[in-house]
Write a structure and sequence with these properties.
With 459 residues, this protein is an alpha/beta fold. The protein has three domains: 107 residues, 2-Layer Sandwich (Gyrase A, domain 2); 120 residues, tRNA modification GTPase MnmE domain 2 (Four Helix Bundle (Hemerythrin (Met), subunit A)), CATH 1.20.120; 163 residues, 3-Layer(aba) Sandwich (Rossmann fold). Helices cover 47% and strands 17% of the residues. The protein has a seven-stranded mixed beta sheet, with helices on one face. Strands 9-10-8-11-12-13 form a six-stranded mixed beta sheet, sandwiched between helices. Helix 6 packs antiparallel against helix 15 and helix 14 packs antiparallel against helix 15. The longest helix is centred in the middle third of the chain and has 25 residues. The structure holds ligand FFO, guanosine-5'-triphosphate (GTP) and magnesium ion. The ligand Nc1nc2c(c(=O)[nH]1)N(C=O)[C@@H](CNc1ccc(C(=O)N[C@@H](CCC(=O)O)C(=O)O)cc1)CN2 binds next to loops. The site of ligand FFO has 5 residues, from loops.
């Protein structure tokens, strides 16, 4: 039997109201055990989707736990398609926890992360990409990524994937007819038809893939890493961009020991901005770990802002930075230009010939706007425009699309070479299956578990 699950669905902390919810057959019975209504005594006349006022109490000792509102939502027209009971109690940490404990003592099981949404998926209310969009919606950090998730929740991506898979199904049907009735002269027609449809599928997959890189950036933010030797002004830059004193700034080299991550919007472009420990060789263990981490985040960066100090001569540490950023998408800052300069922008440019070099005095707030302008330019000059087209924002979806692309390319190659239809059929089927993993139509139990395990509790 499928058990009844329960979880706290709101954030635990200082909040006005907290929600504890249950899903499954026993939800209403459990609620009846621990709830006493003022008018509606024991939820006998629990009306579907009506709020009832009353108290949660412990049936063992009769003690009142909290004053609440309670809602019963009857299967199948609910979030999970199962019976659901939601209890709206006072916020904070204690009430929600006490009520959850009572519910668990009365026969429910603690829900795994994402299990409510997993049930919605397993019971057919959502497809997998919509379930994933629920999570993206919660995690969205900008209006744009929010809009994309909402669109995917409403099924924009699912519809597109279905459309492509339907073309593939049609192709499979033609192949099967030709294999079953080889003598009726339909083979020629089949090859022509396969070619047209195969190309259509490839085109649609490519369109989606083209949105993927920008889509990821819109979802997660442009991964921007501030890099430089100690004391050049990296943390000052972070604070200047954020316009708040987020990171500690001192004149002691080695102030920042670990990486600091923050999110900021520059005219609609979301940045995940990372301040790092200054790169230098050091004996200090903590600082050394910080430096190693800094080097590691460089590998995953979309953009590096390399900071140099105009008031000190270029050192071997600076050379190391130059090597690190040479092959990367980067902007070079020459900072502290308000101090007596050891060298200028022209000199620095010789070392980083292909990079944009900006002169700044972060202490005086000079050059920050120019930096922001430059980031914007670099972002918008990059291929795909932000538009209302369907975006692929999820890495898993991108990987499935890449597999499907390979399948359809192989099928098309086979068609062009007139190889036997049953060989081509294998590729078309793989393509259909790989796309089906996006909507969850064809997917294994363990991949499902993995996807939902990354959800949050109570969703
Ligand atoms: N109190 C509360 N608020 C919430 C949620 C919730 O579970 N509880 N949601 C949880 O994420 C979101 C709303 N999402 C929901 C999605 C579907 C259904 C639902 O009952 N669907 C039925 C009936 C639809 C209808 O009446 O037309 C269905 O699809 O059959 C409910 C909530 C946000 N707000
Ligand atoms: N004169 C001048 N001082 C600056 C400028 N930018 C930063 N500073 C100062 O330089 C010192 C170091 O700044 P931080 O931002 O802590 O440097 P950092 O690169 O984060 O240093 P670590 O975390 O140690 O790697 C502080 O005293 C800042 O006030 C600038 O444009 N001009
Ligand atoms: Mg610092």
């Amino acid at each position: 039997m499928i058990d009844t699950i329960a979880a706290i669905s709101t954030a635990i902390g200082e909040s006005g109201i907290g929600i504890v919810r249950m899903s499954g057959k026993n939800s209403l019975d459990i609620a009846r055990n621990i709830f006493k209504g003022k008018v509606n005594e024991d939820l006998k006349e629990a009306e579907n989707r009506k709020l009832t006022y009353g108290h949660i109490y412990n049936p063992e000792d009769g003690k009142i736990v909290d004053e609440v509102l309670i809602a019963y939502m009857k299967s199948p027209y609910t979030y999970t398609r199962e019976d659901i009971v939601e209890i709206y109690c006072h916020g904070g940490a204690i009430s929600v926890k006490k009520i959850l404990e009572l519910i668990l003592e009365n026969g429910a099981r603690l829900a795994e992360p994402g299990e409510f949404t997993k049930r919605a998926f397993l019971n057919g209310r959502l497809d997998l990409s919509q379930a994933e969009a629920v999570m993206d919606l919660i995690r969205a950090k900008t209006d744009k990524s929010y809009d994309i998730s909402l669109g995917q929740l409403e099924g924009s991506l699912s519809d597109k994937i279905d459309e492509i898979r339907n073309i593939l199904l049609e192709m499979l049907a033609h192949v099967e007819v030709s294999i079953d009735f080889p003598d009726e002269g339909i083979e020629e027609v089949t090859y022509k038809d396969l070619k047209d449809n195969g190309n259509k599928v490839l085109l649609e997959i490519n369109k989606l893939l083209n949105t993927a890189d920008k889509g990821r950036i819109l979802r997660d933010g442009l991964n921007t890493v501030i890099l430089g030797k100690p004391n050049v002004g990296k943390s000052s830059l972070l604070n200047a961009i954020l316009r708040e004193n987020r990171a500690i700034v001192t004149d002691v080299p080695g102030t920042t020991r670990d990486i600091i991550e923050e999110y900021i919007n520059i005219d609609g472009i979301p940045l995940k901005i990372i301040d790092t420990a200054g790169i230098r060789s050091t004996e200090d263990l903590v600082e050394k770990i910080g430096v190693d981490r800094a080097k590691k985040v460089v590998e995953e960066a979309d953009l590096i802002i390399a900071v140099f100090d105009a008031s000190r001569k270029l050192s071997s540490e600076d050379e190391e930075i130059i090597e690190l950023v040479k092959e990367k998408n980067s902007i070079v800052l020459l900072n502290k230009t308000d101090l007596p300069n050891e060298y200028n922008v022209e000199y620095l440019k010789e070392f980083v010939p292909k990079k944009k070099v900006i002169s700044t005095s972060i202490a005086k707030g000079e050059g920050i706007e120019k930096l922001e302008e430059t980031i914007k330019e670099m972002f918008y000059s990059g291929e795909v425009e932000i538009s209302d087209e369907i975006m692929v924002t999820n890495i898993r979806h991108k990987n499935q699309l890449m597999k499907a692309k390979k399948n359809i390319e192989e099928a098309i190659e086979g068609i062009n070479l007139d190889i036997p239809l049953d060989c081509i059929e294998v590729d078309i089927r793989s393509c259909w299956e790989n796309l089906g993993e996006i909507s969850g139509d064809t997917i294994s139990e363990d991949i499902l578990d993995k996807i939902f395990s990354e959800f949050c509790i109570g969703k």
